[in-house]
C-alpha cells in the first residue's frame, strides 16, 4: 500500500458523539474500516426507548445520523440504524459514512464532483504519464550528473457526455527542494463531474460501482474501489473534499509501478474506443440489466479465483443464459411442441407400435422442445468464430462440453483439471467475445488476455 495519494482520514476506531435528529447527544465509538460498512456502539439509550423492558429492541432507522469525532471530523452516517441490546448500550450500523467538515445533516445533500481510484484503472486509461527518463547508469569519479524525467501531460484525457464529464488523470508527486532524494510518482485517478449533483449514495450506485465493473471487464480481473472523495461546495464555493467509507471502498491508495506481465493487457482502452467511455459505462449497465443470467456468471467465471470445475460450470451457465435470453427455450413455443409430440405418439400407436415401445418414446421424447446445450454452443460459437479462431481451439466447443457438464453437475465422474482448463478457456473467450459484440467494441485486443 502506498501513501500517495494521501487520504485525510485514516481507518480505525474513533471515540465520538452521536447526535440524534431530536438533538440528543450520546457518547459512542465509531469503526471506520476498509471494505466494511461503518459500524460501532452508542453508550446510551436511543430516544423513545427509555421505558423499554425487553431486549434487544427493534432497530430504529435514520436516513442520516450525525457524529462528532474527537479528532475533529463530523461524519454523516447514511441509511443508519441503532439497535438497543440492553440499557445503556446500542449498536449502530450504516450503509456508508461521509467524513469531513461543515456537512449539512440532510440525506439529500448533493455533490457536484468525485475523485476516486479503482485498482487496475491505469490499464484502461490508454496512455502512460512518464514519457522518458534519462540519467547515467554509474557515477563518474567527480563532477555532476543529471537525472531527468519527461512527463506527458497529454496522458490526461477528458470525456464529455451530456451533463457528465469524466477525467482520467495522473496525479503527480515530486520531491522538490529535497537535496537527498529525487523522484516523480504518479497515481491514476478518475474524476467525474455531474451537473445533476447526485447524493453520496447516488454517486456510488450510478457512477462509482458501474465504473468499477467496467474496469473489471476490461482487465478480466476483480477490481476494487481504492478510495472515494466527494467535492463539497455550496453556491460554487468549494469547501474541500469529504471521504467516503463503505463496504465497497478499500481505503487503500495505489500508485502503480511497471508490471510487464499485465501492462497493456486489457480488452479495451478509453483512448481508442469507437465512442465515449461514458457511453460505454451506460451500455455496460444496460447489458448487465438485459442479460443478468449471462453477465453475472460469466464475470464470476473469468475473474474470480475458482477451481477449474467451478469456472467451467459458471461459463457454461453464462452461455446457456445468453442463448436463452436471446433465442428463447426452443425453436417453437412449448405448447406447439407438445401438440406435435402428442400427434406423433398418436400416429405411431395407429401404426401398431407396441405399448412397451410407445412407453419408451413417451419417456424419452422431449416434452418441451428445448434447445440442447450442444445446439446452443454451436450457434454461439458460429456467431463469433472469426473473432476467437486465432486464440482458442474451437474444436473444443461444443466437443465434450455437454458430457463434462453432466458428469460434474451430477457427480457422475471426475474430469481432470488438465482436460477442463483449455475447454474453460475456450468457453470464457467465447463469452467475452459476445460481450464485446453486444457492446459494439472491437475484438482485436482479446489476444492480449487469451492465448492458446
TrEMBL record:
Organism, scientific name: Geodermatophilus telluris
Protein name per its UniProtKB record: Uncharacterized protein
Domain ApeA N-terminal: 25-273
Domain Apea-like HEPN: 314-412
Domain of life: Bacteria
InterPro entries: ApeA_NTD, HEPN_Apea
Amino acid at each position: 500500500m502506498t501513501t500517495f495519494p494521501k487520504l485525510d482520514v485514516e481507518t480505525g476506531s474513533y471515540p465520538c458523539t452521536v447526535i440524534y435528529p431530536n438533538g440528543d447527544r450520546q457518547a459512542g465509538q465509531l469503526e471506520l474500516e476498509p471494505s466494511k460498512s461503518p459500524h460501532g456502539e452508542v453508550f446510551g439509550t436511543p430516544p423513545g426507548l427509555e421505558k423499554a423492558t425487553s431486549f434487544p429492541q427493534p432497530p430504529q432507522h435514520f436516513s442520516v445520523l450525525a457524529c462528532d469525532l474527537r479528532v475533529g471530523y463530523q461524519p454523516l452516517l447514511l441509511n443508519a440504524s441503532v439497535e438497543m441490546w440492553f440499557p445503556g448500550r446500542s449498536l449502530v450500523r450504516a450503509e456508508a459514512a461521509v467524513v469531513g467538515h461543515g456537512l449539512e445533516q440532510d440525506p439529500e445533500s448533493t455533490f457536484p464532483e468525485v475523485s476516486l481510484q479503482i485498482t487496475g484503472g491505469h490499464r484502461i486509461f490508454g496512455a502512460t504519464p512518464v514519457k522518458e527518463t534519462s540519467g547515467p547508469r554509474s557515477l563518474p569519479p567527480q563532477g555532476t550528473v543529471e537525472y531527468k524525467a519527461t512527463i506527458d501531460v497529454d496522458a490526461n484525457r477528458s470525456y464529455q457526455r451530456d451533463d457528465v464529464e469524466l477525467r482520467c488523470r495522473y496525479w503527480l508527486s515530486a520531491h522538490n527542494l529535497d537535496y537527498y532524494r529525487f523522484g516523480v510518482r504518479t497515481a491514476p485517478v478518475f474524476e467525474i463531474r455531474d451537473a445533476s449533483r447526485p447524493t453520496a449514495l447516488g454517486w456510488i450506485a450510478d457512477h462509482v460501482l458501474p465504473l468499477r465493473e467496467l474496469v473489471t471487464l476490461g482487465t478480466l480481473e476483480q477490481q476494487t474501489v481504492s478510495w472515494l472523495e466527494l467535492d463539497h461546495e455550496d453556491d460554487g464555493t468549494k469547501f474541500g473534499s469529504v471521504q467516503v467509507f463503505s463496504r465497497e471502498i478499500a481505503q487503500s491508495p495505489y500508485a502503480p509501478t511497471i508490471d510487464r506481465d499485465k501492462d497493456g493487457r486489457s480488452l479495451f482502452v478509453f483512448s481508442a474506443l469507437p465512442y465515449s467511455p461514458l457511453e460505454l459505462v451506460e451500455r455496460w449497465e444496460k447489458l448487465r440489466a438485459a442479460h443478468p443470467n449471462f453477465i453475472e456468471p460469466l464475470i464470476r467465471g473469468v475473474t474470480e479465483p475458482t477451481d477449474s470445475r467451478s469456472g467451467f460450470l459458471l461459463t457454461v451457465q453464462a452461455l446457456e443464459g445468453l442463448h436463452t435470453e436471446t433465442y428463447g427455450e426452443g425453436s417453437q413455443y412449448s405448447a406447439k411442441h407438445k401438440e406435435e409430440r402428442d400427434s406423433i405418439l398418436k400416429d405411431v400407436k395407429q401404426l401398431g407400435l407396441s405399448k412397451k415401445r410407445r412407453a419408451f418414446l413417451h419417456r424419452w421424447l422431449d416434452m418441451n422442445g428445448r434447445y440442447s446445450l450442444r445446439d446452443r454452443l454451436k450457434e454461439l460459437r458460429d456467431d463469433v468464430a472469426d473473432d476467437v479462431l486465432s486464440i482458442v481451439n474451437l474444436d473444443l466447443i461444443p466437443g465434450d462440453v455437454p458430457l463434462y457438464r453432466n458428469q460434474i453437475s451430477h457427480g457422475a465422474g471426475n474430469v481432470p483439471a488438465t482436460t477442463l482448463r483449455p475447454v474453460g478457456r475456450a468457453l470464457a473467450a467465447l463469452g467475452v467475445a459476445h460481450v464485446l459484440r453486444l457492446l459494439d467494441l472491437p475484438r482485436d485486443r482479446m489476444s492480449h488476455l487469451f492465448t492458446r
